[in-house]
Design goal:
This protein is of the alpha/beta class and 463 residues long. The chain is built from 18 helices and ten strands.
């Protein structure tokens, strides 16, 4: 390699580093060297849009230019756009069965207003899904003052969202119910959201890394529900703390913050108390008086009596299933694991652990049983047992990405085990690099390889 070529490569690396730092300051996103492949690809696209003859000239412009439009073009190419209607059934079950009915009942005789915010709405499928739930639950929705704000940093996504026309890929969850009156067929497998939904949702450009919320001008004050899902995992650690603090300020008392399950561990605000539901962790803003209650007391306080009855019914049904399996000697591991999940879904973790251990007594080599056992132990705070279960899972399946990540997250807070935790993060990253970007990672609640890779890269950068 000639001196001039070496000098050019060194210059390129310096410029990419500077651009990554600039993007980090402007957006809060992480752009370490491991992500330069994506950065180069995005720069090449922007270079074409700006009619540059080569990507390197465009790189120099992006680093030196004060034109925010140029950087916005790059941001539009870098941010992730993986979403679909009614993504995460547990979330929409919680909205449909608990959160929205409570809000509607409270507000029907006191103002008839609702304030919801999809922060990081991508191309609009999430806020439109929420709008469909509202329209189904409120026949008189036109008589209500509904604010359904949907924001994103990516302007291309917002343009698609405002058009409201989607391909079949956006309806790959059966719960989307594309035949409903809220989604109108437009031929060639496309659907358009109905005018009613378009009126309910307001799209706006907003950068969560900028101090522009809560504020009247952005309409982000006094929110009843904030959905900020699969967004935090892409941000720098300091930015995550700032964003969560600001979102907390945007919530009204008793309001809900909803992240993805994997991001729940990032939420650390005294006023935001974790509420565990089946396959989901929610956060509810408390008053000073409520914050003095123990977490279990507060969780019990928000559950309706009918839910306690349902929980007990589910427990009895699961106990009966286990008893019948024992009586007839039909000791089906999957049946026992189904019981364990049913118990866990109702928050009955001791019973869930017992059912899971019954399954392991039959087949201690079952990977799904060991992984579920580990998750239950983590929920119960039995960390030594969870570590053993996770390592057993990895012994049985050395490519279980979720187990590596869980083990790394478990060990990371322990000062003397930082190197071991880093090794598990690195193994997870290596496995994810070998996956397709759109491939769903097994046992990950529907996250893609790209999404989990970005999260792991962020965690490694933080370390």
């Amino acid at each position: 390699m000639s001196d001039s070529a070496l000098h050019s490569e060194i210059e390129e690396n310096i410029l990419l580093t500077e651009l990554g730092e600039l993007l980090g300051v402007r957006t809060g996103l992480v752009f370490v060297q491991a992500q330069w492949i994506d950065l180069r690809r995005a720069i090449a696209v922007v270079a074409t849009e700006l009619a540059f003859t080569d990507w390197y000239t465009c790189l120099k412009l992006l680093v030196s230019s004060a034109d925010s439009h140029h950087l916005q073009l790059l941001i539009d190419q870098l941010t992730v756009g993986e979403t679909y209607f009614f993504r995460d059934g547990a979330l929409f079950a919680a909205l449909r069965e608990r959160i929205l009915p409570d809000l509607i009942q409270t507000r029907r005789d006191s103002g008839r207003y609702l304030r919801l915010w999809s922060a990081g709405c991508c191309s609009g499928e999430e806020p439109y899904s929420v709008a469909i739930e509202l329209a189904r639950m409120l026949p008189d929705v036109r008589d209500w003052n509904v604010t359904l704000l949907a924001t994103d940093i990516n302007q291309r996504f917002l343009q698609k969202a405002e058009r409201g026309i989607y391909e079949r890929w956006s309806f790959r969850d059966k719960a989307a119910a594309t035949g409903s009156p809220y989604l109108l067929p437009r031929g060639n497998g496309r659907f358009e959201v109905a005018p009613l939904l378009r009126k309910l949702v307001r799209f706006a450009h907003l950068n969560l890394a900028v101090d522009c919320y809560p504020a009247d001008i952005t309409g982000t004050q006094s929110m009843d529900v904030i959905l900020c899902r699969n967004v935090l995992m892409y941000l720098q650690p300091d930015c995550i703390k700032t964003v969560i603090s600001r979102l907390n300020q945007c919530l009204s008392e008793g309001g809900w913050l909803i992240t993805s399950t994997i991001e729940a561990a990032l939420v650390d605000q005294p006023e935001l108390k974790a509420i565990r539901l089946p396959d989901l962790v929610l956060f509810r803003k408390q008053s000073v008086a409520q914050s003095k209650l123990a977490p279990l007391q507060f969780e019990a306080e928000i559950k309706a009596p009918v839910e306690f009855v349902a929980a007990r019914a589910a427990q009895q049904a699961s106990e009966k299933t286990i008893a019948q399996a024992g009586d007839t000697q039909v000791r089906d591991v999957q049946a026992l694991l189904g019981c364990a999940r049913a118990f866990a879904d109702q928050g009955m973790l001791e019973a869930a652990q017992g059912a899971c251990e019954s399954a392991l007594a039959i087949d201690k080599m079952a990977v799904d049983a060991n992984l579920l056992h580990a998750n239950i132990l983590l929920e119960r705070g039995v960390n030594p047992g969870a570590e053993i279960a996770l390592k057993r899972t990895l012994y049985l399946d050395s490519k279980c990405v979720v187990a590596y990540i869980a083990l790394a997250a478990l060990l990371s807070p322990q000062p003397l085990r930082g190197a071991e935790a880093s090794r598990y993060w690195q193994i997870a990253r290596t496995l994810l690099l070998g996956m397709s970007a759109d491939e769903i990672v097994p046992a990950s609640d529907g996250l893609t390889g790209r999404q989990m890779l970005d999260m792991v890269t962020t965690m490694l950068a933080a370390r």
